[in-house]
Design goal:
homodimer, mainly alpha, Arc Repressor Mutant, subunit A, 2 domains, 3 strands, 74% helix, disordered C terminus, DNA-binding
DNA sequence: ATGAATTTTCAGTAATTACTGAAAGTTCTG
DNA sequence: CAGAACTTTCAGTAATTACTGAAAATTCAT
């Protein structure tokens, strides 16, 4: 492993452990991500100096996260793994998985809590806070769904605009049916 | 603690441990967040059945994340803690802290790696992947900065629009100087 | 200053999580 | 279908992380 790859892999190990992902899994992913070709488990074990079984478990987890893909090479029985190179795709996958694993269960818990009859003033306040949290999460995820549905071009355009979109919205509101009366008043 | 609060606290404990945050810290935060008034460390220790010192450490960490605020009550020497109730503010704080702790160091690492001379074809490919990742992260954070600078009204409007913003952008591009030639061609 | 009330630190221990090697399982080839 | 090539599982152990209680430090009132 070159020093370049080594530092990338090490950094991802550290970062992985700050997220729920464990260090070795982060390193395995990093190695596959920067690699120009698909790798098989023995190569990974050798390069990172992990046991073969550790690599096996790590790959299983990365597959569960859909961050790596299983590949087969003609005339070779071993399983090879590579990772999508498109960073935006990776980001999207991560977002989807986190949503499924963390966001959805949280929303379910909050909804259940909000269905309960508040037994006290304390509970009433608690429910109020939970409702705010629920509504924010729902808004953010709905919005993110919409963003995902946009094509890459629109998205890039929107991002490039940044806060200038504010101006655009102001203008837009003046030409929509709702805005026209307001425009006349101004 | 009512069953309502108990389940909220328990859930946050679980979720905390999936993020880098440890379980007890998650529970302490959850308790403070849903509470109608500021709490002091002994109350928290008693309610969650943690040792006083564990609570002390947890509060220190939550303060470092800027998720709780230290308060003083007149005529009481103890330190009370509460949490901002506005969910959007909480989200923003979390995003800022994660950025400082995780995103910025990652960008630094990537920039350093990209300054290095690639010593091999393998390194060249690795740098290419790192550049993609760097550019995506930078785009997302720049964009997020812009979003943060928007006022709440614009933001809500933008979110409510969701993917309909695509139509708006199409229209906008036709009335800008750059878009006018394109429009003529169509 | 004294000491009571409170918070923090930290060394030791408990609990959890990660990792390994050996064994079992699977898949393919001849 | 034997056995070679490869992957997975899992019980045991190592490493890490979390938690506690005792002691030290801080803060404040008198």
């Amino acid at each position: 492993m070159s020093p370049l790859v080594r530092s990338f892999v090490a950094h991802f190990g550290e970062m992985g452990s700050r997220w729920g992902i464990n260090r070795t899994v982060g390193q395995i992913y990093a190695l596959i991500y920067v690699s120009s070709r698909a790798l098989h488990a023995d190569e990974i074990a050798e390069q990172l100096e992990f046991s073969r079984s550790n690599v096996s478990m790590g790959l299983k987890e990365l597959q569960a996260w859909r961050l790596v893909r299983l590949r087969h090479q003609a005339g070779d029985r071993r399983e090879y793994f590579d990772a999508p190179a498109d960073a935006w795709e990776v980001f999207r996958t991560l977002a989807e998985e986190r949503r499924r694993r963390e966001i959805e269960p949280t929303l379910t818990m909050l909804r259940n809590a909000l269905m309960e009859e508040a037994g006290s003033e304390e509970d009433r306040v608690a429910q109020e806070r939970m409702r705010d949290m629920h509504d924010l999460i729902e808004m953010l995820t709905t919005w993110f769904d919409d963003v995902q549905r946009m094509d890459a071009k629109t998205l890039a355009q929107l991002m490039r605009m940044g806060s200038k979109v504010q101006k655009l919205l102001e203008v837009a509101s003046k030409v929509t049916s709702l805005g026209s009366a307001k425009q006349a008043a101004e």
